[in-house]
Amino acid sequence: MEPLNNICPIAERRYEDVPIDKVKVINSRNRDQEQFDMNVESIEGVGLMKPIRVNDKFLEPNGKYELICGEGRLLAHKQLGKTHVLAEVVTCTRKDALLQSLIENIARTKPGSMDFARELKRLHDEGWDFKRIAKVACKTEDYIRNYIRLVEQGEERLIHGVETGVFPIKFAIQVSATEDSQMQNILMDAFDHGIVTTNNFGQARRIISARAKHTKRATVDKTYTVNQLVSDIAETTKVKTSYVREAKSKENRFMTLLSGINTLFKDEAFVAIVRAAKLDKQPVLSGDFQFEPIVNEGGQS
């Protein structure tokens, strides 16, 4: 296929009115009926604004142009009873035609949707690496990798949830990264109950994984429920709160001790005693903690 930045000038492109019954669709995709009806109305009212694109490489042996881009516009012309449609005619291999079609679909598909993810996956199946797809889609390589993984590893319920607006696609991508189908279902149930969001997803997944490890199982037990997850989250929060409280208590005791030691080392008589015993060397403290300078004779630090 031609390099991505090799754009054919308008003046060098071929445009023809081709018979609709001689155009063969080779890469069909689902379309939104409401949007299609609007396109039909637009074409009927103001005409075709963008020609379809067809491949004439196999016209002579097969008697058909092969459609590359513009299935919706082609179907709209059929519905309006038209016999011909304006087309940009190119000559290329079927593989190049398919890739052009996939790229066109990506450009016309709403980002952040399952249709968009499927088109990315189809390009990847055609041998494109993540870097090249990212360049076409104007996204990062990680973005492309995550969306393709959603199509490859997502449960049917998860994908359906994205398509029906139940799950945001960001949440779906997070879930699809989890290979355990039982864990995926628990996380989806927890999302339905408002327990798990994209913000606390990582914590919930760690808690479920910890439960599986505790029971010495490779995967989550099928009897594990959302109610148990709620209980585990509450217990984890309780332990964390207890840990923070204990850490704060120990820090306060340490600060009291440090303050007391600093006060002692301001006393000349005490300093003289510890120096005589060669115990005046203070240890080096880590972090932001430090001893105040030891006073010398005459009260100087």
TrEMBL record:
SUPFAM superfamilies with a match to the protein in the record: KorB DNA-binding domain-like, ParB/Sulfiredoxin
Kindly list the biological process annotations in GO that this record carries: chromosome segregation
Instruction: Give every ParB-like N-terminal domain span.
Output: 16-106
Matches recorded under SMART domains: ParB (SM00470)
* GO-annotated cellular components: chromosome
Q: Which InterPro entries match?
A: Chromosome_partition/occlusion (IPR050336), ParB/Sulfiredoxin_sf (IPR036086), ParB_N (IPR003115)
Tell me which positions the record assigns to the signal sequence: none
Protein name, as recorded: Putative chromosome-partitioning protein ParB
- Origin species, per record, is Novipirellula aureliae
What does the organism's lineage look like at the top? Bacteria, Pseudomonadati, Planctomycetota, Planctomycetia, Pirellulales
